[in-house]
Amino acid sequence: MKRERWQTNLVYLWFGNFMTGMGFSMTMPFLPLFIQTLGHFGKWELNLVSGTAFAITFLAKAIVSPFWGRLADQYGRKPMCLRASLGMTFTITLCGLVPNIWVLIVLRAIQGCFSGYINNANAIIAASVPAQCSGKAMGTLATGNVVGTLLGPLLGGILAGAFGYRSSFLVTGAMMLVVFILTLLFVHEDFQPVSKAAMVPTKQVFKQMRYPYLVWGLFITTMVIQAANMSITSFISLLIDSMVKNPGQVAFVSGVISSLPGIVTLIASPILGALSDRVGPEKVLLGGLVMAVFCFIPMSFIHNVWQLGALRMLLGVSDAALLPAIQALMTLYVPKSGFGRIFSYNQSFQAMGSVSGPMMGSIVASMFNYRSVFTMTAILEGLNVLILFPATRQVWRTKDQVPAVQRAE
After folding, report:
1. Alpha-carbon distance 141 to 129, whole Å?
2. Rounded to an integer, what distance in angstroms lies between the CA atom of residue 293 and that of residue 278?
3. Phi/psi class of residue 130: alpha, beta or left (left: φ > 0; alpha: ψ in -120 to 50)?
4. Measuring CA to CA, which residue among 268, 263, 260, 264 is closest to residue 299?
5. Does the keyword Heme apply (predicted)?
6. How far is residue 310's CA from residue 304's CA, in Å, rounded to a whole number?
7. pLDDT > 90 fraction of the chain, expressed in percent and rounded
8. Which residues contact 408 (CB under 8 A, 6 or more apart)?
9. What is the pLDDT of residues 29-76, one digit of tens each?
10. Rg from Cα positions in the chain
11. I need a surface site. Which of 58, 87, 107, 145 has the fewest CB within 10 A?
12. Is 401 helix (H, G, I), strand (E, B) or coil?
């Protein structure tokens, strides 16, 4: 049976998301260790420059993404995927050749400016997938980034141990070049360039939406999900160290506990994506948020790693419900003429979550204790439910899940 074009695109864009996710995560776990080789830093200085090098990529992404989104709606999303993959090819490769920390920080800022492969891949599939398959398709596409993010630290650690820290950056650059070539040759997008004068203004795109309040709620939800997932990244190994009797097992146990939500999300995303096609992504989204609240609350009272691991596995189910549902709702309720901009705005909010999550987690952990961060995150997710519930209830009352303005285009 011959594949439809959107199905072929899904295969190659899944691989592109996989390689992009792996490329980002390959170098992140040992970034502070790499920075230590670039100069002589005290503890305070190392924390400062490491935090700056980490955060500046996401800050740049948050600022620049709407600009690229506008170009995506004007010239197509495939050119933006090519721009992102080629830009990251050069910037990440050069990160492996830097002579000092300041060049590294500048390059990571430029890397953030040129990122955007995943959200444009989402927009390509969203614009072409049939409405009845959108949940499953977007859920499947989301697993590409999840799998890559899971395997990246493992491959990066092997390369760093065998060939040094710089080798991971060079291999990542080569991987992004492969993504560029595959996207160029095998991803096809039916898109007619739109003149700047003829392009629908962003304000008009929001006016054309059936549920603009819902879309803003999705932006906030994306930021909250990312902030929640990132809030414990800076101290999870320290928390586990306080619960593991054998110090030699801390690194291994931390790696396993950190990866559990991603493994579960990988398995559950396509299943819950298909469920959203049947019952409605807005119901799956709200259910996922409520489940996240009930996962984070008992984390505040854990006494051993088994309890933490079990709750983080349940959190993976929640993530599997949330990520595809957000993408599916945008596919259904955003006009195609604004896909590039809206998906880019969503990426900006995700980047803001990547910056704010670790900051809030560190502040709360410093003021109280590590377990208090879980309480903070539960409150954050609970507030998100209260914000999103009125908009999702409005959608429940609508029988027709597909807006005429989008499907008429």
Report:
1. 12
2. 24
3. beta
4. 260
5. no
6. 10
7. 22
8. none
9. 667 778 888 888 776 777 778 778 888 888 898 899 888 888 888 888
10. 21
11. 87
12. coil
Given a contact cutoff of 8 angstroms between Cβ atoms, the answer to whether 301 and 374 are in contact is no
Report the alpha-carbon distance of residue 231 to residue 160 in Å, rounded: 26
pLDDT computed for residue 88 by the predictor: 92
State how far the Cα of 127 lies from the Cα of 9, in Å rounded to an integer. Answer: 12
Report the alpha-carbon distance of residue 127 to residue 353 in Å, rounded. 26
Task: Give how far the C-alpha of residue 305 lies from the chain's centroid of Cα atoms, to the nearest Å.
Answer: 26
Domains of the chain: residue spans and CATH: 1-189 (1.20.1250.20), 199-409 (1.20.1250.20)
What does the alpha-carbon distance between residue 187 and residue 81 come to, in Å, rounded to a whole number? 10
Separation of alpha carbons 233 and 353, rounded Å: 13
CA distance 340 to 210: 18
Q: Rounded distance, CA 13 to CA 84, Å?
A: 13
- Distance CA(48)–CA(178), nearest Å, equals 34
Distance CA 51, CA 384 (A): 27
SS (H, E, C) 147-213: HHHHHHHHHHHHHHHHHCHHHHHHHHHHHHHHHHHHHHHHCCCCCCCCCCCCCCCHHHHHHHCCCHH
Q: Are the C-beta atoms of residues 361 and 233 closer than 8 Å to each other?
A: yes
**Ramachandran assignment for 120, one of left (phi > 0), alpha (psi -120 to 50 degrees), beta (any other):** alpha
